[in-house]
Amino acid sequence: MRAGGGGPRSASPAAPDSSAVLVGGVNSPVRAFRAVGQEPLVLARGKGAVVTDAGGRRFVDFIMGWGALLLGHAHPSVTQAVRRRLTAGWHLGLTHEGEVALAQAIHEAMPSVEQIRFTASGTEACMTAIRLARACTGRSKIVTFEGCYHGHSDGLLVKRSAGVPETIAQETIVAPYADVQTAEAAFRRFPGQIAAVILEPVAANMGVVVPPRQFLQRLRELAAQHGSLLIFDEVVTGFRVAFGGAQARFNVTPDLTVLGKIIGGGFPIGAVGGRRELMRRLAPEGDVYHGGTFAGHPAAMAAGLATIQALQRTRPYARLAELGGQLAGGIRDAARRAGIAVHVNQLGSMLTIFFSDHPVTDFAGAQRADAARFAHAANTLRQDGILVPPSQFEAMFLSVRHTPRMVERAIASVSRALR
Ligand SMILES: Cc1ncc(COP(=O)(O)O)c(C=O)c1O
Predict the structure, then answer these.
(1) How many CB atoms lie within 10 A of CB 214?
(2) What residues make up the domain containing 52?
(3) Distance, CA 259 to ligand 1 centroid (Å)?
(4) How confident is the model at residue 14 (pLDDT cuts 50, 70, 90)?
(5) pTM for this one?
(6) Are residues 87 and 45 in the same domain?
């Protein structure tokens, strides 16, 4: 990595050379900043809504652990809960009380989750949900939607990665997001063969795209009518778009729910949950295998429970939505003044700026947006000490630690970029 120079492509002089020992300088591709033509940033600390890089430069953070940190970095109650856990042993290797407490808290927030299985990542949880759906229905095909991301298992990365065997790819049907007709056609074309429909009930991985409620409702009906399972991947939306997730916000109940991110308070986690009769197919009660050395890790359980309890106590959703509205509205106004076509998709504390003259309602629309303009804006923000996800296809996330003043700064920086 280059050092010094002070320009937007330069890393901090004190930053270690991450690319010598890490592939592309990162452990997850989007962190490389390649989509916006920059170098990876090497961070040292996070507190509240601010992160500090290895050279001591501070940034207002709108990445927020890719959505995991709704309470911000190093929240005092989470810190205290994890500290308490660490002194009592952090990897017990058998069931411990923290798992039961977090499962209970999630069940109370999301009644459709009668039983739960914790995993170490959202990827694992999606993979397990699909295997469970296949076993419960005795079918093999799954319907997914363009632009949704469900982690990096083979069957959920079709057409997005080399190394996915054709035999696995054939079992995945990919439909355009929010397109009811194509989903209906898939059920007509493969009668009795579709095990599950899996989707992000609000998409965050093509940038934010909020579907009409009727889309979710129609998928609910289709799945029920054809004996398939409806899986909501609420890894991002769970405890973010409402305390009870998208299923509460849109009042559509899936058969299985996948969770991650916020339920671990920033520690590695995933979970699959749903009706007892479905969940009971998992080993050891049933014949569907899932296991994990770190599944239900005590530190993640402690951080997740402290997070959910703080959210329940403080119910920050109205304030977060106001702040999200302030950010989206400010960017729209700045774009109008600059005469540049922009659509900002926002729901509560998540949003994406699309440089497009059409509303973005699906992945094709997101791909048509002007990526060069997005990169320019992201780079201007970074120069101004504000971090946004370095890709058009990610969401900006607010936390309870963001302030109207921080949002004003971000709007001013976007205005500068637009000029
Ligand atoms: C909606 C969704 N599902 C699943 C995943 C995978 O989760 P993880 O990165 O914990 O494996 C992600 C990750 O960003 C996600 O956004």
Answers:
(1) 12
(2) 1-62
(3) 9
(4) low
(5) 0.96
(6) no
